[in-house]
């Protein structure tokens, strides 16, 4: 009998990789195959002839597909009947399979007007989307998997269940939380007043710090009034009169972990307060801290991970990133990685580079776009309008290419001439000198279905790009020897950046398993404000 063939060196290397490394490798291969599609700006659809750059076998099927049929390519519900080429089906299936599961949206595509899971005083000044996010981040973790053997590695993705930051606090014996990029302090306020944790909120904008402090004092006054009223029916949510401490300062990714902060931005809005991580050995009070960031923008997310890796004062981190297009991509000095890539695993892979356009696409709202396709929403025409406008601008003055124009949030409700009369002056052009009713303009507007189809292909790749960025962060932490996991935390229909990266210096089993299911905190279970809550005040939008 002939001996079994030995695996090739390339296959052997692939087999020796961890599941996360293999996924990153496969994503990069997919992106390299479709790099022109990934890096294309939809506004260049006409100026660069993007339709002709698609595989010729795809063009007839995409050109004849209805928006509802295009929705099926994204994995959603839609109208059957489209005869997709096998190569297009394979592309769509690969893109969907390589992206992290984003959870089951369920329920309404919009958050409720108010969340009954938050005390009414904590809902003030907070939009419904943010209410959903801070309540989930403060109180959501991962339930056990009955099919997973004891002490086995935690799966990369797990469905949500109650109490993440609370469980992290208990598992690490930390009662102090540092909220980086806290803004107006909404999450910090919930953690302090709602969960009773000791919270330090850090933000680079001294004006936002002042506003957050004002909101805290407002809540304390209202809380005092409520207690003095002696309600016959006390609210379901009790608060502790424990306000967070607010710090004005910027995170310095290059500083030693004991320094941590730079003066705030802009100058003159208060000096940077004492480092909330304290000196060697721990925080200001000698203990360790949890660090969290809700939608930490651009390089702030990797900077937080670097400080976690270098600071023994940080016991754990729970991070939700955003604004991937703002990530640094230039080579970083040894020992202080920043931006993308962070991990040596991803940095060593040929073709790992991501363009600005690719990172921008990773910030898109896939579920929202899919819903617009299913409903053949008039919002879809805005993509064609902008591409036609770009063609007119480039014809009039090529130096004005790719301007960040915002002709209005209700562009879909306008005729194209109305849209152009708003957009051309933003580019410094007189609409009177541009032929808006020419045959060429009419011919471009008739290709709206093609523009929408091209957008759909880009949306297919966007979750894979986000997955690669998050995998890079997870692998960076694994390379440092930390325990980490990614959890789909928010409802992706109204909170697109819904994956939270959780990492700790000790095993996460007690945090990510053994939790009882709480149906009241599910992704689709936000309900209306109860009558006793209404007595205590409403949230502002």
From TrEMBL:
* Gene3D superfamilies tied to this protein: Vaccinia Virus protein VP39
- Lineage: superkingdom: Eukaryota
Matching SUPFAM superfamilies, A to Z?
S-adenosyl-L-methionine-dependent methyltransferases (SSF53335)
In this chain, composition skew of type Acidic residues spans 532-541
Q: Bias category Pro residues: which stretches? A: 143-162
This chain belongs to which protein, by name? rRNAD protein
- Gene name of the record: Rrnad1
Chain segments carrying region Disordered = 1-20, 139-169, 227-247, 262-285, 513-541
